[in-house]
Amino acid sequence: MKFMPKKVDAQFLVRIIRDEVSPEEREYFEQWLSESDANKEEYAETLLLWEQMGKANLPQLPDTSLQWQKISGRLTEKENKKFFLAPVRFRKEKIHIENIEIWITRIAAVILLAVVAVLLKNNMSPNEKPEPVVVTKSNIPSKIIKYELVAGKGERITLPLSDGSIVYLNSDTKIRYPKQFESDYREVEVTGEAYFIVAPDKKRPFTVKTGQITTLVTGTEFNVVNRQNKVEVVVATGRIKVFSKNTGKVVEVQKGEKILADAGKLKSAFKVNLEYELAWRDNKLAFNNTRLFEIMNEIERNYNVDVVFKNDTLKSRTLTGVLDGKSLDQVLSLINLTLDINIHQQGLTVIVE
Amino acid sequence: MIKIEESELLSILFEVKQGNKEAFKKFFSVFQPSVYYFIYRYTCDKEAAEDLCQETFIKFWLFKDKLDLNSSPKAYLFRIARNLAYNYITRKPPVSSYDEDENLLISISKNPEEDYETYALVDDLQKALNILPERCRTTFILSRYEGLEYSEIAVTMNVSLQTVKNQMNKAISMLKKELSAKIN
Fold first, then answer.
1. Is the ipTM of this complex over 0.90?
2. Model confidence over B101-155: pLDDT tens digits?
3. Chain B partners of A86 at a C-beta cutoff of 8 Å?
4. According to the model, what pLDDT value does residue A273 have?
5. B11 touching A (Cβ < 8 Å)
6. A84 touches chain B (CB under 8 A)
7. Which of B12, B36, B78, B109 best probes binding to A when mutated, by most A CB atoms within 10 angstroms?
8. For A15, nearest residue in chain B (alpha carbons)
9. Which tens digits make up the pLDDT trace of A1-44?
10. Are the beta carbons of B144 and A246 separated by less than 8 Å?
11. Candidates B59, B125, B162; nearest CB to A56
């Protein structure tokens, strides 16, 4: 709680005693203390009480192993509840603004908190700042409000965060972030692909959660992919730490390196070609012995079309290179030329044969 | 009290969620004292504390699917404990003397003669705690003995932050009165 107290009351004094106050609050307290003897006495009494209450005699702790045996036995059996074990009913959840996060889902095309989203066919024009739409009561602390921003297929969004960081969302990507970051850490969650330019702030580490994997930085640029339980992180500048909740492992990744995680298991970091890895940021598609199947997945995502393979053997044909085609037509022609196959469009469907 | 690192706790809880009993045993050994003493201070009843402590962990296990690895397991554990303890004290038939005010729940067992001695052995501090209304008592115990911050207490008790602060104010005020009366 960083709000200034209206007056000094017992619960405030308790926070002073427990040293759970901000420097401003402590200063306020010290001033209050010096104002009168009555104040000094009140504080002394409260401190004394607090100390006293810690001295109560307690019964001896029941033997842990014995207790465990009793519990363990009951964990597997079906039990008849005794009278004082009648079903515990938790009180109905009331929405108390101060302690429950409020998730607000938005459709990117409809409500934008960030710079304009454009279809890949057009060039990005990041020059307007759309109005943030306030959908909650004005007395909710900003930190508690969380937003969810979705870039649909065929869309990309640039999102400025409250600390000055910028996130670039690739197509088919979802990000959850607070309206305002906490005072000691900054955290967001990503499903899909996003490029981060994190504003340096040594006092507030920045974490990106992608399923089981968490990436931790203080100020740097990196790319994150979280699709189908596979996570990839590529570092463009600086250094990051990647942590797996699953295995507890932490790996440091440097500039120019990439790290993979499959179902929460982290592998070692390795050097990569940043131009390839970050090609999407320049509106390019880069592939390195990538199977046509995966290439078409990427095309589905980026152009918002459905791809149908009429010939399954074509799925494993591979392609290497950077496609700088802006339109779907151009991209498909290039692939056709290179692989000597026939991919054509039929309405919103792309057929490969 | 066994101390463990946050990351170790996380991996233990992860295992617990998967149904790993060994991990749950470790979890139990770490939090048993907290839960036991919380319930003892709340009910002033050793036997009840022992039983309800077991029930708390059993319930925790039964609902392990609902475990949210991102939030505090302590708050969740105390929520279960407090609900069980609350049901216990409200369902126990008060015997010789009880207070009409439904908020005052003094733990008196069915055998007043047998327990008078034991009751007398309970020190003044616990007796002072006993006199606090339930929500006050819960708030104070969680803050003073379990080290929870007001915001965590609010989550445990499912009330607003302001309510927690009010309860704390009330608790301090009543305890001061009670203990100064004892001295005089």
1. no
2. 333 344 444 444 444 434 444 688 888 999 999 999 999 999 999 999 999 999 9
3. 87, 91
4. 87
5. yes
6. yes
7. B36
8. B149
9. 455 667 899 999 999 999 999 999 999 999 999 999 999 999 99
10. no
11. B125
Could you say which of B32, B55, B173 has the minimum Cβ distance to residue A64?
B32
Place of tokens 């500048």: A237
**Contact assignment for B160 to A1 by CB distance below 8 Å:** no
pLDDT number for residue B92 = 66
Q: How far apart are CA B29 and CA A151, in angstroms?
A: 46
Beta carbon pairs, A and B, within 8 Å:
137
Tell me how far apart the alpha carbons of residues A287 and A2 are, in angstroms, rounded to a whole number. 50
∠ CA B154-B157-B162 to the nearest 5 degrees? 40
**Does the distance separating the beta carbons of A93 and B92 come in below 8 Å?**
no
* Mean pLDDT of all residues in A165-191: 88
In angstroms, rounded to a whole number, what is the distance separating the alpha carbons of residues A330 and A337?
11
CB contact under 8 A, B40 and A58: yes
Residue B142 at interface with chain A, using a CB cutoff of 8 Å: no
**pLDDT band with cut points at 50, 70 and 90 for residue A120:** very low
**Model pLDDT for residues A306-351, shown as the tens digit of each residue:** 888 888 888 888 888 877 766 888 888 888 888 888 888 887 777 7
Which chain A residues in 29-68 lie under 8 Å from chain B, judged by CB atoms? 45-46, 49-50, 52-59, 61-62, 64, 67-68
Q: Which residue has the higher pLDDT, B168 or A4?
A: B168
Contacts of B173 in chain A (CB under 8 A): 10
Label residue B60 by pLDDT band (50, 70, 90): very high
Report, as an integer, the average pLDDT of A235-244: 87
Q: Inter-chain contact A49–B179, Cβ cutoff 8 Å? A: yes
